[in-house]
Amino acid sequence: MLDKDLLDILACPHCVSLPERAPEGVRKGEMELLGTEQKPEALRCKQCRRVYKIEDGIPNLLIEEAVIEGQA
Alpha-carbon distance 25 to 40, whole Å? Predict the structure, then answer.
């Protein structure tokens, strides 16, 4: 289970390191939960579409291990 408060403060490490601004209506590096609150699978960045796996309830936010959605 991933706490809602934690999800609110987590941000994509790739996007927060960039000088560019986020698109209108999106917080820089804002993440969305994939799966359910009870069984979270991954976090996806709304800005760059990187998907970070959640393993044993812990988000893996290593940029080099993230997968960009739509790329193999």
Answer: 24
Residues 72 and 68: their CA atoms lie apart, in Å, by 8
Per-residue burial over 30-66, b if 16 or more Cβ lie within 10 Å, else e, is bbebeeeeeebebbbbbbbebbbbbeeeebebeeeeb
**Cα–Cα dist 59/22, whole Å:** 22
- SS3 of 26, please? coil
Domain chopping of the chain, boundaries: 4-68
pLDDT, tens digit, for every residue of 9-48? 999 999 998 887 777 878 889 999 999 888 999 999 999 9
Residue 5 Cα to chain centre, angstroms:
14
